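Prompt: For my understanding, could you write out one protein's sequence and C-alpha cells?
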Amino acid sequence: MLKNFEFMRPLKLLITLSLILIGCSSQVNDWPVTLVDTDFAIPTLDLSGIVEIQTVVDKEEGQYLGHPTTALLDDGQTVLAVYPKGHGKGPIVYKKSTDQGASWSDRLPTPTTWSTSLEVPTLFRFTKRNGTHRMLLFSGLYPIRMAVSDDDGERWTQLEAIGEFGGIVAMASLIQKKNGDLVAFFHDDGRFLRTDGRAGTFVVYRTVSIDDGLTWSAPEVVVQDETMDLCEPGAVWSPDKKELALLLRENSRTTLSQAIFSTDESSSWSAPSALPIELTGDRHTAKYLDDGRLIVVFRDMAPESPTMGDWVAWIGDYSDIRNGSPGSYRIRIMDNTNSWDSTYPGVEILPNGDVLTTTYGHWEEGQEPFIVSVRLDIDMLDRWFNKLK
C-alpha cells in the first residue's frame, strides 16, 4: 500500500479546486484545471476534461487500437505515427499529420509484411554518419524484425529479421553514441530471446549497430534482478550527455519503478535504484523541454494512486531522476476508464516549445481503445502550477 512505503512524504494534498487562465492563446480562454487529490509530494494537474486539446488520431468500432510511437520531421509540422491493430500483436497502421497533430491522414499504405507484426511497433529517426536521416521501424518477439526508410517515411522496406534473437517491446528506446553507433534497448522474460525459450527472469538487453542501423549485434545483458521484473527501458541523457539513464518498469508490482545509470555510453551500468513514487509507472518516454527541464510521459502505476492506469506526465529536472527527488508537478493528460491498459506514448517537442503526445487508451467506457493526440502548452501549465504555489 502507498502509505507503507517509507519514502512517502506524510503531507497529503487536500486541495481540489478549479483555476481559470486569463489570456490563453488558444481559441478557448477559460479552461478549468482541476487538482487531483493525491498523496504525492507534488501537485497533479488534471487536464482530462479539456477536450479542446485532444485530437482523435484513429478510432474503429469494435477494433482495439494501441501502443503508438511517433516521429517529428525537420519541418516541425509533419508527424508520423505507427501502432498495431490489437494489443501489441496486429497489423501495423501508419498515419501522418502535416499540421503538428491537429489533424491526421487516412491510414497510409504499408509493406505487406507489416500486416504480420507480432508485437508493439516502434519508430525512430536519426542522423546517419553522412549527415542524412534514416528511419527505423522495429517489431518484436521472435525474431525481432526491422523496416528501413531513407526518405522520411515515404517508402519503407519489408520487415526483415535483424538476427537470430527476439524480444518484447523491441526496441523500447534507441540512443546514438558520440561516434555515431546506435544502441537499442529491449527486454525479454526468456520466452522469445531464442526459439526454445521458456518464461523466467526479466532481462533488459542492448544491441549495437555500427552501420547506421542496417545490422545489429547479438544482445548483451544490461540489467536483471531476481527480486524484480525490470522491463521497458526508457533512455534519457543527462543535460551534458556525460551520463545515460534508463527508466524501468517494474512488472512484479512489488516495488517502485527503477533507474540505472551509465557513464560510458551504455557499456556498463549502476545497480538499480528506486525512482520517486511520482515517476512510478510503465513505458517512460522522456524529452527535454526548451528550458532544459524534462517531461516524462508514462502510464501511472504508483500504488494507490488515484490516477493509476491513466495517461500522465511528470515535469522535473534530470537531477530529480538522479537523486530520487519528486520533481515539480505531474499532469493527468487523460483519464483511462480501464484500470491499467493505456499509454505507450509518443512524445514530440514542437518548434514553439509545445509538447505533442500521442497514445492509446480506453477513453470511452465500454469501448475498445483508440488513439488520441494531446497538445500541451508548457508555459500555460507553468502558469497554472504557479497559481497553486
In short: Residues 113 and 158 are 6 Å apart (CA to CA). Residues 1-29 have pLDDT under 50 and may be disordered.
